[in-house]
Amino acid sequence: VLENWELQDSIKPQKVEFRSLNFHSTLHWQPGRAREARDVVYFVQYKVYGQSTWQNKDSCWGIQNRVCDLTEETSDIREPYYGRVKAMSAGVYSNWSLSCRFTPWQETIIGPPTVTVVHSNKSIMLKLQAPRSPFKRKKGSKIPMTNFYDLLYQIFIINNLLDEQQKVLVYEGKDKVIKIEDLKPGVSYCVMAKTYVPVLDRSSAYSSRQCTVL
Questions:
Q1: How many helices and strands, by DSSP H and E, does the chain display?
Q2: Mean pLDDT in the chain?
Q3: Which residue ranges does UniProt annotate as crossing the membrane (predicted)?
């Protein structure tokens, strides 16, 4: 019995947490202390905060992976959710390990916009596309994140003659097509963009660099 209790305690999952990008939300966890415990499988449940009953996530029931996609289950983005995980090894089940409370609208990380560069001799034209959520419209296209937040785009320019760290903010606003003018011909310019969410005072990571020589 003691051995069972020790196994039960040592396989209990650790660091159960939600991670979310553009509302694509997954539950992650670490294995228990018993690194040598073999054939450990995991079971995932979730619920909305305030509900009494937990729901099984069928596709994450008896899995060996340590990640479970709960995007659909957390699609009511203003609701707070919990996830929990238990482990089993050699017929012994651990106790449940609980995540912190997770509210997608407040906590999802918003990605950078997609940037397309079109250049002429003294200017660069940028076309921006908002990041997309996993949720689909009736016709099947993915709903952009601008449907859920008032987003601003921030455009930064790096003049390659200067230090890479010196990114200059040249535009902030909602336009999807932006023209950067008065640039020097023959100079290599690189452009990066961020999405900024004023209501949460949060910025995305930078988009990948787009470089061009005028």
A1: 2, 18
A2: 92
A3: none
Residue 53 carries which side chain, given as an amino acid letter? Answer: T
8-state DSSP, 145: G
Tokens 């990380």 appear where? 109
Angle at 91 between CA 88 and CA 95, to 5 degrees: 40
The domain boundary residue, chosen from 81, 106, 131: 106
Task: Work out the pLDDT band at 164, boundaries 50, 70, 90.
Answer: low
Residue pair 157/172 in contact (Cβ under 8 Å)? The answer is no
Instruction: Give the whole-number percent of the chain exceeding pLDDT 90.
Output: 74
Helix (H, G, I), strand (E, B) or coil at 73: helix
| AA identity, residue 17 | E
Structural domain range at position 204: 114-213
